[in-house]
Amino acid sequence: xxxxxxxxxxxxxxxxxxxxxxxxxxxxxxxxxxxxxxxxxxxxxxxxxxxxxxxxxxxxxxxxxxxxxxxxxxxxxxxxxxxxxxxxxxxxxxxxxxxxxxxxxxxxxxxxxxxxxxxxxxxxxxxxxxxxxxxxxxxxxxxxxxxxxxxxxxxxxxxxxxxxxxxxxxxxxxxxxxxxxxxxxxxxxxxxxxxxxxxxxxxxxxxxxxxxxxxxxxxxxxxxxxxxxxxxxxxxxxxxxxxxxxxxxxxxxxxxxxxxxxxxxxxxxxxxxxxxxxxxxxxxxxxxxxxxxxxxxxxxxxxxxxxxxxxxxxxxxxxxxxxxxxxxxxxxxxxxxxxxxxxxxxxxxxxxxxxxxxxxxxxxxxxxxxxxxxxxxxxxxxxxxxxxxxxxxxxxxxxxxxxxxxxxxxxxxxxxxxxxxxxxxxxxxxxxxxxxx
Length: 437
Fold this sequence. Notes:
Layout: H1 2-14, E1 16-17, E2 26-34, E3 43-51, E4 54-60, E5 71-74, E6 79-82, E7 84-90, H2 101-114, E8 117-122, H3 127-139, E9 149-152, H4 162-174, E10 180-183, H5 196-208, E11 213-216, H6 220-229, E12 233-234, H7 245-254, E13 257-258, H8 262-269, H9 287-298, H10 300-307, H11 310-331, E14 335-336, E15 342-343, H12 353-364, H13 369-375, H14 378-383, E16 401-404, E17 418-423, E18 426-429
Parallel strand pairs: 2-5, 2-6, 7-8, 7-15, 8-9, 10-11, 11-12, 12-13, 13-14
Antiparallel strand pairs: 1-18, 2-3, 3-4, 6-16, 16-17, 17-18
Helix pairs in contact: 2-3, 4-5, 6-7, 8-11
């Protein structure tokens, strides 16, 4: 308890919300390359003007007038991109902990922010954690943020009958969740697999309550069934066979979003040995939060168990299939949103670090760095219906962005070269931020 309390105090000291002060309350960042999250070519030597926590103007230096009295921040030679959006994460409290759930959720949101992840969509939590998350969500537009923004689906629907499933949808809807999520997983003979009559009831009831539905799935057959039923987002990769034209036609005609979560599968087998990233300074930026799990996963007996796991060996092949399908879906023009399935209670799925790993894996799967950045910013916001407020660097949007010392369009790993993080027009200040690479 004392150790965690000290950790929270240190986080509070490290992250101080501190906007530049000026008589007009306006800040102008000048001289940077700007990747705006739309997919358009970057602006070179651009200016971004921030006022009242939002972007007032963005453009080439000669096209933007900087208001009198504005504080100027010279970021010449740097690259600015929108804050990263994790479309599939988890923000949960530990059920047995004596630390209040709110404090645990805040700690995780600050950890995400430390890595430039400025928004997290939590796709599943307990009812109590969901309520805390909704409280934090409802506060986030009214306070100066030192944490990532949060949106939540509440509890994942996993009922056995249509009637019970509709009741669960209504309970979530009454809590004012942002979306509904269901699990359709496992082989057809699994006793726990949600049947089509149940997920059709969920989707129907959710749509009646003006809520969209994200579907957890693995098999092509289930993805097509969910699409037939009207699902709005496919929350994982299809990992059994190549996607076919039937699926492509349905996804594109209804503009259904697709979240690959490649790192979810990586986490199943990568700990059969000690991964190289355990000594990566950028990974170690989160060492206060990661230390306990790192110790568990570095244990030789735990690693031997992974090596002997049939699931782990199967998932290696499934990830290769996921990569092929991601490339095929992207080439077909499907809306791809970056997501990781990261969460504090999901061992080895690192909040903050895995979002950068996911982007690197997406590029290795065949997407360009620009396509990947868009999937983690503007397209993610559009898929999750947040694009009215975040995701792109455009006038009127919240001023959520990351300043990098290198260009991620030449190497996607440069998203890790973080020099500044801004959320809601406030710069987050961390004493070690410029040291951890």
